[in-house]
Amino acid sequence: MKIITNSPQDTISAAKKLGRLLRAGDIIAYKGGLGAGKTTFTRGIALGMGLGDSVSSPTFALVNEYHGDKLTLYHFDMYRIQSEGDLESTGFYDYPFEENVAAVEWSENIAEFLPKSAIYITINSVGENSREITVEDGGRFADAWD
């Protein structure tokens, strides 16, 4: 499924729809270059999950946590991860993913360690503020954007 957004607010609105439908155990695996809008999309997911909009890039922290009443959103940045050893040093395997939701930026760096059920979201810039967002979810969220 492809979605075109024409502003950061459009991107947030699209992501909010997905955030409302996420459930424990979901892992969002982002693909997209620097400045594509991965953190903006995560802000929308957090809003859809009822977690507020204080989402920031986890570039230097490697992971940011946003806690809600029912679910926590773990927001990872895997830009600097190059091996399983690097991944292990982040504590990635210690997070209770089955009880929460994760959003992983630069997922291509850890693709072989993600579950087959991961929801892949590719974000490409197609203009100054326009984005083409491709959601690969096996059709699970198809009705969200109709």
Which characteristics define this entry?
alpha/beta; single chain; 146 residues; 21% helix; 3 helices; globular; Rossmann fold; 26% strand
Q: In words, what does this structure look like?
A:
With 146 residues, the protein is of the alpha/beta class. The chain has a single domain (2-136), classed as P-loop containing nucleotide triphosphate hydrolases (Rossmann fold). Helices cover 21% and strands 26% of the residues. The protein has three helices and seven strands. It has a seven-stranded mixed sheet. Helix 1 crosses helix 2.
Question: Over all CA atoms, what is the radius of gyration?
Answer: 14 Å
Average pLDDT taken over every residue: 88
Strand order of the largest sheet: 1-7-6-2-5-4-3
Supply the CATH superfamily name: P-loop containing nucleotide triphosphate hydrolases
Overall CATH class = Alpha Beta
Profile the largest sheet.
7 strands, mixed
Structural class: alpha/beta
Termini separation (Å)?
Answer: 11 Å
CATH architecture level-2 label? 3-Layer(aba) Sandwich
